[in-house]
């Protein structure tokens, strides 16, 4: 942990291979029968994010933001290039996606906690806080498939923001639930940034949120970094895009 | 690829056991009798086959390798049930845990392992029940019982290799899953659970059926528990099994490596 960076990307490229259909994809396993369409999602991206820095990633739909974050969190592997990460990452991306629908909310807290590398007693300590924050109450012992999407998102946010990560990735997660809950989430992120000097990466389409939370902005377009610098200039750059 | 898989398993560590228990819970929760179904279903199956084949078709007077039909069927069935569980679970393994594959950071290659361990718990319970039944019906056992863990281990390794072969492919293509479903049914009749392959007279058919690795395991369980034979007494079948197992592992690693990225994108 002596390095000064939290995240470092060196020449990271991600190509998706899009096949005409499942059959073409299957045949490709055993030889090159049909040429896939190559979609370049991230094109040769190099950047460094320092520890304690808070950064916004801006860009239109399809610019490659989600792919980039998925690679940083380790869900996807880059086609080429290197990604170095210092510290525990907790990602608020697709809040509701990492749940097992067949088990209860409480069991999901333990599942997520374990996947993030926590020990059972550490999770036990956080358990009640998470349930309180998510406002799930008696539903906590019901399978999460019975939850509304709002409940799932709230629980997802509560778990991921409670595990005291070193790096917090927030992907459009500030609009969880109703206005009050959304406010609560924003307050929590603020306090995480201020108190714990957490590194934060925020993906948002809202200039207001970007200004509130971060001082640096990275603008992506068609998989490339087209701007990296002061947040105000980044927002101008992003908004001037056609 | 193998080194990556070993690294994944080290990384996951005790999580594997925890996830195995979670998988077990997922499989048997959601019904009133829950756990009981793990025992009820096999019992009914066993009774039906025992009645239809033991009494109906072949008559109950004949012995197989000096063993009566019922214990012979029971022991073979216990081994078969584990393999059947994983033949089916293997197809769906990455689909069932798609959120671990494509939504969170997780050592994906450990999924087949914890699924195999999860079914092993059921296997242990059924095996214990089988021993009680065997003792109650006056069967005696020999020192050969100590080689049971060896056959169990080979069985688990074989089924994990199977998961690596079919799991990624069916994550990519749905047709494939249906195809395998059909094959499982065929395998049941071809694996010597219900009839004694060794007693077939046709040389070619017999040789082909004996190549089936499921048959090797099923017979291995019977040798250990009923016949009282050591695993090295039939080196030819042991050798064939090892070769087939090695081929399965190699093919599994090949598929897993080739399909991994497409699988993550597909799920």
Please give a structural write-up.
The complex is a heterodimer of chains A (242) and B (267). Chain A has 242 residues and is an alpha/beta fold. Chain A is 38% helix and 27% strand. Chain A has a single domain (51-81, 88-240), classed as P-loop containing nucleotide triphosphate hydrolases (Rossmann fold, 3-Layer(aba) Sandwich). In chain B, helix 2 (15-28) crosses helix 6 (111-136) and helix 4 runs parallel beside helix 7 (148-172). Chain B is globular. Chain B starts with a helix and ends with a helix. The model of chain B has no long low-confidence stretch (mean pLDDT 86). The interface between A and B is medium-sized, with 28 and 28 residues.
Tag the structure with descriptive keywords.
A: alpha/beta, Rossmann fold, 27% strand, globular
The multimeric state of the shown protein is heterodimer
Main sheet summary of chain B: none
The overall average pLDDT of chain A, rounded, is: 82
Spatial separation of the terminal alpha carbons of chain A: 41 Å
CATH class of chain A: Alpha Beta
Q: Domain count of chain B, please report it.
A: 1
Strand order of the largest sheet of chain A: 5-6-7-3-8-9
Query: Which outline of chain B best applies?
Result: globular
Number of helices of chain B: 11
DSSP strand content of chain A: 25-35%
**Helix proportion range of chain A:** 25-40%
Counting helices, strands and paired strands, the structural category of chain A is alpha/beta
Name of the CATH superfamily of chain A = P-loop containing nucleotide triphosphate hydrolases
| Strand percentage of chain B | under 5%
**Main β-sheet of chain A, in a few words?**
6 strands, mixed
Topology overview:
The complex is a heterodimer of chains A (242) and B (267).
Chain A: E1 5-18, H1 22-29, E2 37-50, E3 54-58, H2 65-73, E4 80-85, E5 89-92, H3 105-115, H4 120-134, H5 149-162, E6 167-171, H6 179-196, E7 199-203, H7 207-213, E8 216-221, E9 224-230, H8 231-240
Parallel strand pairs in A: 3-7, 3-8, 5-6, 6-7
Antiparallel strand pairs in A: 1-2, 1-4, 8-9
Helix pairs in contact in A: 3-4, 4-5
Chain B: H1 2-12, H2 15-28, H3 36-57, H4 69-96, H5 98-102, H6 111-136, H7 148-172, H8 174-190, H9 203-211, H10 213-227, H11 235-266
Helix pairs in contact in B: 2-6, 3-4, 4-6, 4-7, 4-8, 4-10, 6-7, 7-8, 7-10, 7-11
């Amino acid at each position: 942990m002596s390095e000064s960076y939290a995240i470092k990307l060196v020449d990271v490229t991600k190509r998706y291979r899009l096949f005409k259909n499942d059959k073409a994809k299957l045949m490709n396993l055993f030889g090159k029968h049909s040429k896939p369409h190559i979609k370049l999602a991230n094109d040769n991206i190099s950047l460094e994010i320092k520890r304690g820095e808070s950064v916004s990633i801006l860009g239109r739909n399809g610019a490659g933001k989600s792919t980039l974050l998925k690679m940083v969190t380790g869900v996807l592997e880059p086609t080429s290039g290197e990604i170095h990460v210092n510290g525990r990452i907790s990602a608020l991306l697709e809040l509701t996606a990492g749940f097992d629908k067949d088990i209860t909310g409480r069991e999901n807290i333990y599942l997520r906690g374990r996947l993030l590398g926590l020990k059972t007693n550490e999770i036990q300590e956080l358990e009640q806080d998470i349930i309180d924050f998510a406002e799930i109450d008696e539903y906590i012992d019901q399978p999460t498939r019975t939850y509304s999407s709002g409940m799932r998102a709230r629980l997802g946010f509560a778990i991921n923001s409670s595990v005291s990560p070193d790096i917090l990735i927030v992907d459009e997660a500030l609009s969880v639930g109703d206005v009050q809950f959304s406010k609560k989430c924003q307050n929590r992120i603020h306090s995480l940034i201020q108190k714990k000097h957490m590194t934060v990466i925020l993906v948002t389409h809202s200039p207001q949120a970007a200004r509130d939370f971060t001082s640096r902005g990275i603008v992506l377009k068609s998989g490339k970094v087209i701007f990296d610098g002061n947040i105000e200039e980044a927002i101008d750059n992003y908004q001037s895009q056609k | 690829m193998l080194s990556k898989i070993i690294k994944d398993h080290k990384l996951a560590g005790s999580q594997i056991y925890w996830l195995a228990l979670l998988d077990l819970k997922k499989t048997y929760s959601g019904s009133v009798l829950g756990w009981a179904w793990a025992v009820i279903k096999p019992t009914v199956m066993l009774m039906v086959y025992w009645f239809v084949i033991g009494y109906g078709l072949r008559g109950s007077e004949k012995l197989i390798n000096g063993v009566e039909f019922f214990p012979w069927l029971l022991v073979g069935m216990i081994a078969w049930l584990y393999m059947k569980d994983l033949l089916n679970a293997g197809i769906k393994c990455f689909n069932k845990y798609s959120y671990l594959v494509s939504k969170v950071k997780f050592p994906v290659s450990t999924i087949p392992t914890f699924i195999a361990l999860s079914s092993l718990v059921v296997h242990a319970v059924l095996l214990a029940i089988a021993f009680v039944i065997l003792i109650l019906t006056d069967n005696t056992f020999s020192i050969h019982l100590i080689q049971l863990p060896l056959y169990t281990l080979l069985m688990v390794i074989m089924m994990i290799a199977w998961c690596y072969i079919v799991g990624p492919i069916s994550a990519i293509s749905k047709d494939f899953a249906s195809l395998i479903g059909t094959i499982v049914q065929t395998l049941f009749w071809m694996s010597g659970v219900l009839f004694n392959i060794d007693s077939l007279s046709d040389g070619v058919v017999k040789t082909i059926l004996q190549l089936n690795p499921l048959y090797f395991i099923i017979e291995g369980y019977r040798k250990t528990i009923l016949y009282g034979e050591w695993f090295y007494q039939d080196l030819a079948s042991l050798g064939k099994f090892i070769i087939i197992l090695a081929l399965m592992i190699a093919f599994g690693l090949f598929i897993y490596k080739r399909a991994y990225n497409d699988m993550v994108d597909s799920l």
